Amino acid sequence: MAGYIARRLLQAIPVLLGTTFLIYFMVFAMPGDPVVALFGDKTPPPQVLEAVRERYNLDQPFIVQYLLFLGGIFRGDFGVSFSGQPVGDILAETFPVTLRLAVLAVFFEMVAGITIGLVSGLRKGGIFDASFLVISLILISLPIFVVAFVAQFVLGIQLGLFRTTVGPGAPIQDLIMPAIVLATISFAQIVRLTRASVIDTGGQDFVRTAASKGLSRRRIVPIHILRNSLIPVVTYLAVDFGTLMVGATVTEGIFNVPGVGRTLYQAIIRGEGPTVVSFVTVMVLIYLVINLLVDLLYAVLDPRIRYAK
Amino acid sequence: MPSNTRPTQAHFVAPIDETPLVAIDSVKAEGKPSNLWRDAWRDVRKRPMFWVSAVMIFIIVIVALFPTLFTSLDPRYCQLSLSNQGPGGGSVLGYNRQGCDIYARIIYGTSTSLSVGLIVTFIVAFLGILFGALAGFYGTWVDAVLSRLGDIFFSIPYILAAVVIMSVLSQYVSVWTISLAIGIFAWPATARVLRAEILRVKNSDFVMAATAVGVTRFRILLRHVLPNSIAPVIVITTISLASAIVAEATLSFLGVGLPSSTMSWGNDISQAQVDLRTNPQTLILPSIALSVTVLSFIMLGEVVRDALDPKARALR
């Protein structure tokens, strides 16, 4: 077990170095003045340009710049936003809101996705299954911002069920609609994955054994089929975390949820390059850590992974 | 010699009229051999979803190539006096906030979405096949280096990466740069799929046979291994076309995509946000165009997957 954890941690190091280097390289190794390029068609005051130059040590050779940037990350210093607030402080403020939204969204997509996937898989080829195959295809085709606007228009404006934007403090009842929207990105995939997994598990020998020794369907379905079908679904959630982050950026922007995503969204919209770079770096780091944690969690839960090479 | 033996056949084949056991040892030379592609085509032809998506994609391509066939209006000609007016007076779907014709803008936006989709798909397929094939076939340090490289690119969600690239390249925005920004981070998935398939195929008997008769390694990869492991790549490529179209629209929606002078559904949706309450069709109509286009390619990908992946077929 300790060997596995050590190996997995060692593997994470080159990826961590590689991703941060890549981001830094994309921004600061471009021809021309990277600081001017970051501000696009805007001309910021010279003091701001100077501050950014100083912040990223642009008078140093490239590799030194990168190492200083990396050192900053390890000390928890992610840079300063456009308005001069440290990115770390903004994160501390906004992260709990995003976490609440994400947990709510994952809860919705898991409950709805697994239930529908299970029923579809058990009644493969039935009318319920066929109609949800079509619905899931349509849902996969809808970009997140389209879902968000349709929800805002139909549920918020026309039916008046929800507030179209989130109020101060982000109370949980205001987060329900953004969470449902965010959940639709992965919902269809979870339905299909659960369905495929349920069909696969349902044909296994141990299910037949359970049935032939006289166990009731009520016991076979949750204990034998469902539990064994959930492994790929949970794996998918970790892999899909990147989609969730992009989705959260757009959703939080549209519904005005005061989270990490909206901060990034507004920085993108306003063309505040340095803030965008800081937040993308942070998100990539979070993504790496989540994937590492899930891998380690697996080794705890499933001994087969621990011993496999 | 009976006609059912090949001249080069080394071993004896009993003539048909002499033995009833002919079926065991004879080689049917005339019958069409079973073939993955022919089987797949036979399977695909029978599915209504294939024909629906094929017709939709055909129409979309025609619209993209010949927009003038569908509208005589200039999408760039806008009159503020017509701002947010409904349909009527030569306009099928009404006008947006700037007084431009919504229908004409949707028609002209098609080619943008489709070109980005195709260029990204080309970049992703090229990089994915190149790196996946080299990593899977040559193994050892080539595999180690390329797979770690893939891990690094895979760890940055490609839309976030494209946002960073497009923020830096904000002066050089075009269909080409946006496609490059999306494609350069989207290839690892394709490479992984191909690598796994090549690892499976390269231990086959026919590869050993080719090695035995002295075919060079590179030629084995090109002529024997790659053609036999390309099926999953085709499946993932069809789907990546749809994802690329969504990615372009998302970037344009965020304002780091194409400039507003380019017709793009993402741009139109982004600009229509403020009119959601007053004139929802300026937002809903380009959204429908975008979603229907994506749906067509998703449906095609679905059919192709079912046809080429026996596991997916079993689930149907």
UniProtKB/TrEMBL annotation, chain A:
Membrane spanning stretches: 12-30, 101-120, 132-155, 175-194, 233-255, 275-301
Alphabetical UniProt keywords: Cell membrane, Membrane, Transmembrane, Transmembrane helix, Transport
Annotated localization: Cell membrane
Lineage: superkingdom: Bacteria
Domain ABC transmembrane type-1: 95-298
Bilayer topology term: Multi-pass membrane protein
Any matching Pfam family: BPD_transp_1_N
Coiled coil: none
Stated family: Belongs to the binding-protein-dependent transport system permease family.
Protein name stated in the entry: ABC transporter permease
Organism: Agromyces tropicus
UniProtKB/TrEMBL annotation, chain B:
Protein's organism: Agromyces tropicus
Transmembrane segments: 48-70, 114-137, 149-169, 175-194, 229-254, 283-304
Signal sequence, renumbered to the chain: none
Entries under Gene3D superfamilies matching the protein: MetI-like (1.10.3720.10)
InterPro entries named among the record's database cross-references: BP-dependent_transpt_permease, MetI-like, MetI-like_sf, OppC_N
Top-rank lineage group of the source organism: Bacteria
Topology class, membrane: Multi-pass membrane protein
Subcellular location: Cell membrane
Transport found in the keyword field: yes
Family: Belongs to the binding-protein-dependent transport system permease family.
Span of domain ABC transmembrane type-1: 110-301
Alphabetically ordered keywords of this record: Cell membrane, Membrane, Transmembrane, Transmembrane helix, Transport
Keyword Ubl conjugation among record annotations: no
Lineage: Bacteria, Bacillati, Actinomycetota, Actinomycetes, Micrococcales
Full protein name: ABC transporter permease
